[in-house]
Design goal:
Length: 359
């Protein structure tokens, strides 16, 4: 595989302004349907987002306390064509302007993935242009490059979402080393489960962050799994269980449960673990930039603590995506697809959805 240098990356995307008449530019229609957001985007040269349409199903799934896979896939079927049409309309494009079509092929809910994947492959076949399958986790990483043009390598990346907690080290763009990943519950998954037992609703991350502002993060001494272990891996199932045990014990004692304190203490435990792993890697690898990606990267308390520690102790910058690129969206898929396009890494139309796809 041919790696792209960091300077080449910045020159290819960051230095080229949008010009519809520019025959040198690469225009990609990207589709993201890995969970409960139906999204389509038009991306020019990897970093210039011409449109990014997201139709969320949050309200539809709220009453169930989480995403119902069958309902999600049916809603994707209903929304996929209108969302694609709106993305092209907002970008001032039609199908003839496209150079490639990209879509998430994993990880995610297999029924949801199939909707976006099938739509993308059908369009690519009909238009006789390349189809590019993109790993959803890689898409979250590339969301940083859309928002931040000053990222310098080597880069340490913490990716934290509903299904994944990964720590990666990039010497150059495309050349990464997976330092650690989740062994059981990912951080975002733990947020959702704890929010559910606290009666805070779905999605759990924003709900816990909001109520935590009213609580004391030091009120309850929840465990910090793996924080002192000689590994970069993550494990949050034990922390989730500790919260459940605390709540059950309080109920048995007929003691009052201070929900803001529980939420704040849980959130702080997660943040401490994530921060400790990043700082451990900074100590052991040469790093010029640290980037945060995935849905949990929208958590303000996490960003503030990590940025404060990195800047204060190591004089390192922390980069995070703009809020609209933190959660699932197609623009990040289009950005990742662009660099695969430049290397000719096209996918066959037989590419299958892979619910448990790894990095």
């Amino acid at each position: 595989m041919t790696w792209i240098s960091w300077e080449a990356y910045k020159n290819m995307g960051g230095e080229i302004e949008w010009n519809k008449e520019d025959s040198e530019g690469v225009i990609i229609l990207a589709i993201e349907t890995s969970c409960d957001e139906t999204s389509a985007a038009v991306v020019y040269n990897g970093l210039h987002v011409l449109s990014n349409v997201v139709s969320s199903q949050i309200e539809l799934h709220k009453k169930y306390g989480g995403v119902v896979p069958e309902i999600a896939s049916r809603k994707h079927l209903e929304l996929i064509n209108p969302v694609i049409s709106e993305a092209l309309h907002q970008a001032g494009m039609d199908f003839s302007d496209l150079d490639a079509v990209a879509a998430t092929y994993g990880p995610g809910l297999v029924g949801s993935l199939l909707v976006g994947l099938t739509a993308a492959k059908t369009l690519a076949h009909a238009l006789n242009i390349p189809f590019i399958g993109v790993n959803h986790i890689v898409g979250h990483i590339y969301a940083n490059f859309i928002s931040n043009k000053d990222i310098e390598a080597p880069v340490l990346c913490l990716t934290v979402s509903g299904g994944h907690s990964d720590l990666l080290y990039f010497e150059e763009l495309g050349s990464y080393r997976l330092l650690g990943s989740t062994r059981d519950d990912a951080a975002g998954e733990a947020f959702d489960k704890v929010a559910r037992v606290l009666g805070l609703g779905y999605p759990g991350g924003p709900a816990i962050e909001k109520i935590s502002r009213e609580g004391n993060p030091a009120a309850i001494d929840f465990p910090r799994p793996f924080i002192d272990e000689d590994t970069y891996d993550f494990s949050f199932s034990g922390l989730k269980t500790a919260v459940l045990n605390y709540l059950n014990t309080q109920k048995q004692r007929q003691a009052e449960i201070n929900v803001p304190d529980v939420a704040a203490s849980f959130q702080q435990a997660v943040i401490d673990v994530l921060t400790s792993k990043v700082l451990k890697a900074v100590e052991n690898y040469p790093v010029k930039s640290v980037i945060l990606s995935g849905g949990v990267s929208a958590n303000r308390a996490l960003k503030e603590q990590l940025a404060r520690r990195l800047e204060g102790e190591y004089q390192l910058p922390l980069y995070t995506p703009e809020l609209e690129y933190c959660t699932d969206n197609a623009a990040m898929i289009g950005s990742a697809a662009y660099y695969k396009y430049l290397k000719g890494e096209f996918s066959p139309l037989t590419l299958a959805a892979r619910a448990n796809l790894k990095l």
